[in-house]
Specification:
The protein has 428 residues and is an alpha/beta fold.
């Protein structure tokens, strides 16, 4: 059994709203053992909707559609579905009564326009909506069972849980052969590019392999996706765990977690286990690094605090940076970040001190220090060091990547790993 997911709406097709429904639906289907062939976004255009529905129903066993069930003229999903089926719309008396009660319970009569929400294609039926006004729809089209939900996420999720998932489970049971298992896991790394990761993973990424392994890059993170499919759930779990172990062995300490794990969370855990603490001194990142650390519950045990010293004057007065260093080398330099890190460590009484100073752009770059040049200082009980990175992207991307580089730099330091493994660093 295979599925196609359709998301309906001009706001989605134009990029004005991010489609989170499709990702959630695909994950729910995978949990039921139903793979998703594709996600497709369709504008509020009747001919396009009719064609897309017909094509999806000819290719998949299940089509899940979200959106286009409201009461306004641009809500066209029910009309498109009726045209695709070649039938007329009919009114569901129970759905209409439920709509009337919805408005009466709130103290005002139902607008006449909402009556359209009680319509459904002949031969199909409505699905109750316990969270809003728009009933869902269920019809047979082509080879597929089509389920339509409202686009509002909390309404859609409630409808899937209460009405659609039981139907899907019944369909799986009718097919016989038991319920297959589709298990997924995402392994997160930082400090390696996608092509380098693929080279290390080698044959693990062969497309005919089960479990399948793929890569995704987002905001500097390189994430490895593993999907294990098997008729026996226990075997699917064993295969998933085995492949996860192989992936993590190939990428080594660059891996910081799985699924919902965060880089800062792993760092804080390691600092706690090692009995160490860190103080921060930030210039171009403006407090992003400290914010990422304090987002982690329990970080107060390892993070006494930090400084945002954007101006040269504050670098001098708050962290004790010698003005001569700034005059000679500039604020974005190895000597200055070393002094910043040492000053933060000493003043906070922390085990480690880390500093960031860079050219985030869009202006301010030079031939020697182009936009994206970032220096990191690291003060440890063994000494004070510096590392230079050349980061790409706009101002926000450079600042975000710099803060994450600092997190991984600290993590590697606590682990005793060589920082040269992080692709952006060169020892200063």
């Amino acid at each position: 059994m295979q599925a196609i997911i359709l998301s309906i709406g001009d706001e989605l097709a134009l990029g004005q709203t991010v489609d989170t429904n499709s990702a959630w639906l695909a994950a729910r289907l995978a949990g039921l053992g139903i793979p998703t062939l594709k996600h497709e976004t369709v504008a509020d255009d009747l001919p396009a909707l009719v064609q897309t529905l017909q094509q999806a129903a000819d290719r998949a066993d299940v089509v899940l559609v979200s959106g286009g069930l409201g009461p306004t003229p641009d809500d066209l999903t029910r009309d498109a579905l009726a045209q695709a089926m070649g039938v007329e719309l009919e009114e569901d008396p129970e759905a209409l009564a439920t709509l009337n009660r919805f408005f009466e319970d709130r103290g005002y009569p139902m607008p006449d326009r909402n009556r359209v929400q009680a319509l459904f294609p002949a031969g199909g039926c409505t699905i109750p909506n316990a969270r809003g006004t728009a009933p869902g729809l269920k019809v047979s089209l082509g080879r597929a069972q089509v389920f339509v939900t409202p686009g509002v996420p909390h309404e859609m999720k409630a409808m899937v849980h209460s009405s659609i998932e039981p139907e899907l489970l019944a369909m799986i049971g009718d097919q016989g052969g038991g319920r297959p298992a589709i298990l997924t896991r995402t392994i997160h790394s930082f400090g390696i590019g996608e092509s380098d990761a693929a080279e290390r993973l080698g044959t693990l990424m062969d497309r005919d392999r089960n479990p399948m392994v793929g890569t995704t890059v987002s905001r500097g993170f390189c994430s490895i996706r593993v999907r294990s499919e098997h008729a026996d759930p226990a075997q699917a779990q064993r295969d998933l765990d085995d492949t996860t172990g192989l992936v993590e062995a190939q990428l080594g300490p660059l891996v910081f977690g799985r699924d919902q794990d965060q880089l800062a969370t792993d760092l804080v855990s390691r600092l706690v286990a090692a009995g160490q603490s860190v103080a921060t001194a930030e210039s171009c990142t403006g407090g992003l690094l400290g914010g990422m650390i304090v987002d982690v519950p329990g970080s107060s045990a390892v993070y006494p605090g930090g400084w945002v010293t954007y101006s040269n004057a504050l670098k001098q007065s708050q962290l004790g940076v010698d003005p001569a260093l700034i005059d000679t080398h500039g604020a974005v330099s190895a000597p200055v970040v070393q002094a910043m890190a040492a000053g933060a460590r000493e003043r906070a009484g922390a085990t480690l001190g880390i500093s960031i100073s860079g050219v985030a752009g869009p202006g301010g770059g030079t031939d020697d220090k182009p936009v994206g040049t970032v220096w990191f200082g690291l003060a440890t009980p063994e000494g004070v060091f510096s590392h230079r990175a050349q980061l790409v992207g706009d101002r926000a991307a450079v600042r975000d990547r710099a803060a994450k580089c600092a997190l991984q730099m600290l993590r590697f330091t606590v682990m005793g790993e060589d920082l040269k493994q992080i692709r952006w660093f060169a020892r200063g």
